């Protein structure tokens, strides 16, 4: 290639890279065919070929006579810029990119420069076809809602209902209120002279014993009053509360173990398996030297194998201390056969 051809090629490349910069001086005005000079274009900023680009800050013009208002506080704007050189050649697979990310805190702020590749690498990449190349730019912006915007959000209209939460609307809550007020009660349960207004349908749906007595062939079917024996009023009240609400707050009190012992017997009598299991769990967790013997007798009488195994374990580990309690005497009088289980447990610990 001769000198003239080289200058021509260099000139064409400089024209193609005009947005990056020029190697010559400012464009000169020339007369057109009509003899008039063309309109002068604004001068371009000179940048050496291969230098990175960056956005120039600009100023906002305020109208005269109007005070400049302080702009509202905005949240930081996080942005990422990725510039990728796309190959225009079918035989070249050049794909070079550069990227930068920045958090903009105020207007007019600029990020760092993005350098894709230098001029020498660009000319050798094969991405230039017919004195042109393609750059793909991708801008990703992530904004955060500031606190003052969230606080200034309009309130919901007065006629809009709040979201349904269901809190305080449980069935057990309403049934407990029904029991407490006695509204619509159609049967009275008498326990040692104390009356408990109740509802036949609820009692029968929870207990097979009440189902048989209130809707079976027994005389209580047509009676407005039913007498309950072999149970204390306090214990029956706790059991009735469980029938309506499926909970027993009395088990969490200081004397919860004693209450659980009485309730377990009442639950077994009325066929309330759920209440029986709750009492059994309470007694298993609260088994001590003082309560192990009486609880063991209770477990033996009402068929609670898990509770019985736990009590046998406690008695065998503290046999001398348990034998000194009143509960041990009651155990020997009510369930003498349980002694066989105790002896086997004691031998197992010694072997």
UniProtKB/TrEMBL annotation:
<dbReference type="Pfam" id="PF24570">
    <property type="entry name" value="BACK_BPM_SPOP"/>
</dbReference>
<feature type="region of interest" description="Disordered">
    <location>
        <begin position="1"/>
        <end position="73"/>
    </location>
</feature>
<feature type="compositionally biased region" description="Basic and acidic residues">
    <location>
        <begin position="1"/>
        <end position="10"/>
    </location>
</feature>
<dbReference type="InterPro" id="IPR008974">
    <property type="entry name" value="TRAF-like"/>
</dbReference>
<dbReference type="InterPro" id="IPR011333">
    <property type="entry name" value="SKP1/BTB/POZ_sf"/>
</dbReference>
<feature type="domain" description="BTB">
    <location>
        <begin position="185"/>
        <end position="252"/>
    </location>
</feature>
<comment type="pathway">
    <text>Protein modification; protein ubiquitination.</text>
</comment>
<protein>
    <recommendedName>
        <fullName>BTB domain-containing protein</fullName>
    </recommendedName>
</protein>
<dbReference type="InterPro" id="IPR000210">
    <property type="entry name" value="BTB/POZ_dom"/>
</dbReference>
<dbReference type="InterPro" id="IPR056423">
    <property type="entry name" value="BACK_BPM_SPOP"/>
</dbReference>
<dbReference type="InterPro" id="IPR045005">
    <property type="entry name" value="BPM1-6"/>
</dbReference>
<dbReference type="GO" id="GO:0016567">
    <property type="term" value="P:protein ubiquitination"/>
</dbReference>
<dbReference type="Pfam" id="PF00651">
    <property type="entry name" value="BTB"/>
</dbReference>
<comment type="similarity">
    <text>Belongs to the Tdpoz family.</text>
</comment>
